[in-house]
Amino acid sequence: MKELLVPSSYQIQVEYSNKYIQEQQYLIEQKKLISENEVLNYKHKDGRIYASDSDRGSDPYLAVSVSPYHPKFEEQIEDGIKDMVFAFLNKNYMAVSSCEGHYKNFNSANVVLAFPYSEDRNIVVEKLKNIPFVNFELLDTMANVERYKDKDGINKIKKLKIDNHSCEAEAESINKLFFKKYKRYYFLEIRFFKYKYEHVEWPYSYHFFNFLIPLNLFYGNYLRKKYENQVKNLVTNIINSKEFPVYDK
Description:
By secondary structure, the protein is an alpha+beta fold. It is 39% helix and 16% strand. The chain is built from five helices and eight strands, in the order αββαββαβββαβα. The chain has helices spanning 7-36, 79-90, 121-128, 167-178, 206-240; strands at 42-43, 49-50, 94-99, 109-115, 134-139, 145-149, 155-159, 186-192. Strand 1 and strand 2 (49-50) form a beta hairpin. The longest helix is centred in the last third of the chain and has 35 residues, at 206-240. It is globular. Mean pLDDT is 77; it is low at 1-6, 9-16 and 197-213.
């Protein structure tokens, strides 16, 4: 006897199939648009990757986020943090900024993740909070640049003015990078060998404390050179492990 297909069931299957095809077509179109976008970051003489021409007097070390679907995405990530960035991406976390750390400039390594819900940042913090030399900062925004065209029609970036900031516009930009549809994002900066002094109470004179800051920075750099690769590798291995959750939102 021939099997009969229930009409309602058939209709649901067709609707689901059409929706899937539309979504796939949308992704293909978006990926094409992303691949056509100009990448503004480039590698400078000091090995850092960013978009601003700091050696020409513009705002130093300004960079733009690049979609992981862009064909040149890998070129946009500094080698010393690349494995960790891809580990996060492979677990479906949205990495929007990173730096491998630079001893000469006392800049610490970091990765910044975007989350559509503020409480979700604790997923990562709970897994990494006990690792030495790793700390975190919770941020409400990461937007610090805006694009513009110069007199020759060439795309450039400049520091974002506070009056021009919009959480909605920031969310729209991230949605385009990762093919999402959220109205707001919250950020988690994971920092390595980062030291802060602004809230330290020091019993001696300010000048004496000011003298100690560079000593602490040099000592911090010594620790970084000795342990940074080990700490980065440890964090990357934890992210790649089965125990580290895949982000499903």
